[in-house]
Automatic annotation (TrEMBL):
Record-level GO BP terms: polysaccharide catabolic process
Keywords: Carbohydrate metabolism, Polysaccharide degradation
Protein name, as recorded: T9SS C-terminal target domain-containing protein
Pfam families found in the cross-reference section: CelD_N, Glyco_hydro_9, Por_Secre_tail
UniProt cross-references to InterPro entries, sorted A to Z: 6-hairpin_glycosidase_sf, 6hp_glycosidase-like_sf, Cellulase_Ig-like, Galactose-bd-like_sf, Glyco_hydro_9, Ig-like_fold, Ig_E-set, Ig_sub
GO molecular function, one term: cellulase activity
Gene3D superfamilies: 1.50.10.10, Galactose-binding lectin, Immunoglobulins
Family: Belongs to the glycosyl hydrolase 9 (cellulase E) family.
Amino acid sequence: MRKLNQRFRTGFLHSLHWFFAGWLAISVAGAQSISKQIIVDQFGWRPSAKKIVVFANPVNGQNNGSPYTPGSQFQIRRSSDNSTVLTGNVTIWNNGNLHTDSGDKAWHGDFSSLTTPGLYYVYDPANNLRSYEFEVRDDIYAAALKASARTFYYQRSGTAIPAQHGGNWTHGPAHTQDANALLYTTSAQAGTQRNVTGGWYYAGDYNKYIPFLSSTMWNLMVGYELRPAAFPDNTNIPESGNGVPDLLDELKWELDWMLRMQADNGGVHSRVTVTSYDNGSDDPATDVQPRYYTAITTWSTATFAAITAHAARLYGNYGGQYPGYVNTLRAASEKAWTYLEANPTMLPASGTDGASTAAADAGSNANDDKRRRVAAAAELFATTGTAKYKSYFDAHYNDVNGTSENGFHPFSNGNLDASLCWELNRAYYVYAKASGATSAVVTAIRDKFKSTMDWPLESYHTQKSDPYLGFMWTGHYSWGSNLQKALWAILPILAVDLNVNPAKNALYQEIAEEYLHYFHGRNPLSWTYLSNMGSRGANAGAENSVDEFYHSWFRDGSARYDGASSQFGPAPGFLVGGPNVYYGGSSAPPKNQPAMKAYRNWNTSYPEPSWEITEPAIYNQAGYTFLVAYFTSPGGTTPPPVISASSNSPVCSGQTINLAVANAPTGATFQWSGPNGFTATVANPTLPNAGTAASGTYSLTVTPSGGTAQMVTTTVIVNALPPATATSNTPLAAGQTLNLTAAGAGNGASYSWKGPNAFVSTLQNPSIANVTTTVAGTYTLTVGRNGCQATTTTVVSVTGTNPGPEPSSLIIYDDALKTGWVDWSWSMTRNYNATSPVYSGTKSLSLQNTAGWGALYLHAETAVSLSTYPSLKFWVHGGPNAGQRMQVVINSSGSYEFTPKANQWTLVTVPFSAVGNPSTLRDIFIQDVTNNAQAAIYIDQLHLVSSGSTTPPPTDPAPGGLLIYDDALKTGWLDWSWSISRNYANGTPVKAGSKSLALQYTGGWGGLYLHPEPAVPLASYARLQFWVHGGPTGGQQFKVTLNGSSQGYTVQPTANAWTLVTIPLTNLGSPATLKDLYFQDTGGATNSVFYVDNLQLSAASSARLATAEPDGKPVVRVYPNPVDRQQTTVRVSLSGFRPNEAVELKLTDLQGRVLRQRPVTVSTTEYAFPVGQLAPGNYLISVQGETTLITKKVVVE
C-alpha cells in the first residue's frame, strides 16, 4: 500500500523509454524475495540520521534454518522504479564471531550518505535478495508516534470506544460499575462505595494501578516536554481539536482517575481490581463482575504526589480549556505529601495493600517507598519552590542504605543503571533542572549522568558490542524487555538535556536513535514490535509488524481481533513485552532460545503464559512513546490517507448505528446504501433504534471534487437482546432456602443478580440458604449475550421470625388482636391472620382501604394510661406496590403520616408528643389520607413502647444558639437544594423530638442548600452542630461549606448510629455572616439515605472575637433573578476575583447536566451569560475560579 502511495506521489508521467526501463526493473524486482536476514528499520530513517543495515546469519535459535551470507556489496534501490541510488560495502562484525545473545553472525552496511527523501529497499545482488521497504523522511516516525499515543485511548476504562474514534476497534461502555466500587481488604467492605471510574487499563487485563504509573506518566510527561511539537491536537480522540495537545488530553483522563483515588486525608488508594479473571468476551463491555478498590498505601501516595506535582507544570497554558486544573493538581499533590509527613515509614508495613484478589498487588518495600518519596520531593520542589521539599531531597538523594535497590545505588556505584533505582534517576533529572536547587547536589547528579554515558553506554556503542547496535545486558531480556531497551535509550537523551558533556551531545543522540531502530524491525527476528502497523492497521509501513499479543480485549480466538486470520487484527501501535529469556512455560520458541530470540508472535493462555512474552503494558508503551517522540518532527510529507468506512458494530437491538467515513477529502460528496433500502448523503449518518434486520453490508461511494469516485464498505451486526426472565420460589418462611431462577438465554449468555444486603451472583440460578426477613425485596437480573444486556426483576417475600417487642411493652396486635381491644373500623378490609408477609411470629394484619378515608379503628375497652408509654410503634410492609399514604390518629386528636415501602418491613414510631401528649389512650386510627381505594398493606407488632425505649423530646438550642432544623425547617430558611431528595418529616430514625430530616443524593455532586433570609450575623456563634445517622448501610460522604467558600468540613455518617458533628466556624472560613449552607456530596454518585437532626448554630464563648468577612473575598451576583425565559441573557457580576484569573461560568440543571458554559479571564466586573430558550424552572449558575467555587440558583419564569 505504501509503495502505491509513493508512486502516486512520484507520478506516472515518464517517457516511453523510462516506461520500458521501469517495466524491466519491476520484472527483475518481481523475482526478488524479501529476506528477513537483511534487517532494516521498517519505517525508515531521518535524512540526517546514521543509517546501518544489518545482514545476519542465524546460527542458533528459531530461525537457524535460513542460513545466509551476504555478498561483498549491497545496493539501496528506489522502490518506485527499482533504480540503484547507492552502492556500499558490506563489513563483517567482530571478525566473524558469533554474537551469543542473538545467536547470529552479522555484517553491517552503512548508507548514511543517503539523505534524499523517498521509499527504498536494500538489495543484495549476490543473492538476489532484498529487505523490507523503508522510507527516508524528516517525519518518518510521526505515524508510529501517533499510533503509540493512541493506544492509551484504546486502554481507557469507564467509556465506550466508538467507531468515530476507534475505527475498526470498538466496544461499548465498559466497567462503568467502577462508579460504585467497594473497598476490598480481606473481603468486600459493605457501605464503602467510591467512584473510581476512568483511567487506563494498565496492561492486557482490566486492572488499574497507581504504583505502576511512576514510569508511565513520567515518560509521557517528559517526552512531551522535550518534544511538544511532536504531539498535535488532531489524532482523532474525543478531545481532538480543543486547542490542547491530544497527549495532554489523554494524560488528563488518567489524572482525573488518580484524583478520584485520593482520600480526604490525602492518602491514595493503591489500585482497582477484581476477584476473578473471568472477564467477558472480546468486548470489555461484557465484563460486568464487581470491581473493587484497595487500601491506601504510602508508596501509592508518594507516586501520586510526584505525578500530580509534575502534571501541574504542564497545564498552565490551557486554563481556558481546563480552568483551575493546575491548582487542583498542585493541591492534591501537597495534600498527599501531608499524608506522607504524618506517616514517615512505609504503610502498610507488610509492603502489600492486603487485598487478596485475582491480580498482583503492586507491593513495595521500605527502600522503594523512600525512593518514591525522594521523587515526590523533587517534583514538588520543582513545582512549588517550597523549601521543605528541597530539604527532604537534599537529605535523602544519596541515602545509600535507605534507597538502594538490590544492592545498587548511583552514589555507591558511581553511575546510574538502566534497570535499577529509576525513581532516583527521574528525581535526579527533575531536581537538576529545578530553579533554586542546591548547586553542589546538582553537580553531583550531573557527574553521575556523565559517568553513565562514559560507561557503559558510550563504551559499548563505540565497541559495537551488540551487532544490532542497541546493547543491554543479557539479563535485561526478561519480562518486559522492550521497556528495558527503551530505558537504555532514554538515559543518553536525559544526559543531552542536562548538557553533561556538550561536546558529545550529538553522539549521545546517535546512541539513543540506534536503540529506536530495534523496535522497528532491526532485531534478530525482523519483527516490528508494534502491532498492526501495516496496510490493514495503521497503514504506516512496517508490514512485518506483530499481529498477536495477550490482551483481554483482543483475546485468543477472537474472530475480529486475534492474529493474521482475524477480520481486523488487534488495534495498531501496541508495543509487545518483548523477548524473555526467563520464559516460564515449556513451548519452544520462546523457550530454549538465545536471549534476543526468546520471542513468539503469540496469544494464548495457561499452561503457556504468553503474557510473559507479548502482553502490552502502559509503562512499556510510555517508554517507547518517549523515545520515538524525541526523534519525531511534525509536518513533512506523509502518505495520502486511505478512505475507509466503519461503524460502531456490533450494536444491540434498540441502539443507534453510527456509520462513519475516515480520511475523505474536503469537498467530497457521499452516497450511502444498505439493508432495507437505507440511503444517506451525509458523511457520518446514524440509524436510531436499529433492529436485527439492519444487519448487513453498508456501501459508501465517496466522490472527491473533480476526482474519481471510490467505493468502500463496512459490515454491521445488530444483535438481538437476550431474553430475561426471573422467578423465585417466593413466598418463603424464615430458615428456608431462596432459589432464584433465570430462564436460559442461550450459549454464551451471562447472568448477573443483585439484591438486598449487597447480594450479587453471576450464577444462572443462585440460592440463599437459611433466609431471614432481611433478604426480602427486589432482585434484579441482568442477562448478557453477544455484548447486549437485558434486565428484569423479581420480588421476594419472607415470613419472619424477628424478635418481638420489648418485654415491658404493651402489645395491641402480635399474631392476634389482644384482649380488651375492639375493632370498630370502616371502609377497610382486615385480615388478622395474614401468613405472608410476616415480620415476627406466624401472622400479620392485612389492611386494604376500599373507599375514601377508610380506617382501621381499634378501641380500648378500658382507657390505657400513657404515663409510662411515650410512643406507639409498629412494623409496616407496603406489599409489592407500596405508595399508600396513611396517618395515625390518637383519640381523634393529632395525626402522624407515614408511607410504607414496597417489599420490605419498616418501623414506624409515633411519639405521643407529636399528637398532643394525651394522658390516656382510648382510640387508635390508621387511616387513608388519599380518599382513594389503595393496595393492601401489612401491620405487625403494634404496641406501646415503655419509657426506656423512647427518643427524647424536641430540644431547644444550646443556650444562646439558633435552631435551623428540629422537627421542621425553621422560619426564615429557604430550601434551594439540587439533586437530593428531602423529607423534613421523617419518622424513623429520630434523635430528638418526633421527626428528622431524611436526605438522599439522587445525582452526582447533589447538595442540600439552605438559604436564610435575611443573612444571619455570626458574631455570637462559634460552631455549627448537628446529629447525623448513616441509615442501615452508611458509606455516604458529604462536605459542609458556608457561602460558597472553598473551606469545608467532610462528614461520613456511621451506619445504624447517631453521631454528633460539631464544626468550629473557623474550619468553615470564619465568615461574618451566614448566607448559604451546603451539605454537598463528594463522591459524585447516588448514595443511600441518611438522616440529620437538631441542626443549629451554637453560641460563641466569651473568649472568641467575631471575625469580619475578609475584604476581597470573591462574590458572585446574578440578575435579573428570576428572569423571563424570553430574555436571552442574565448578568453575572464578579467581585473579589484576582485580575486575569481564569474563571469558568457554567449553567446546569438541578441534576448537574451542563447546559451552557463560558470560560473567561477576569478583566471586568460583569459578564453576559446566555439563558435564552430555557424551559421555566430552577437552574444553577456556578463560577469556578482558581481557588473558589460559588453556586447561585437562577429561576426562569
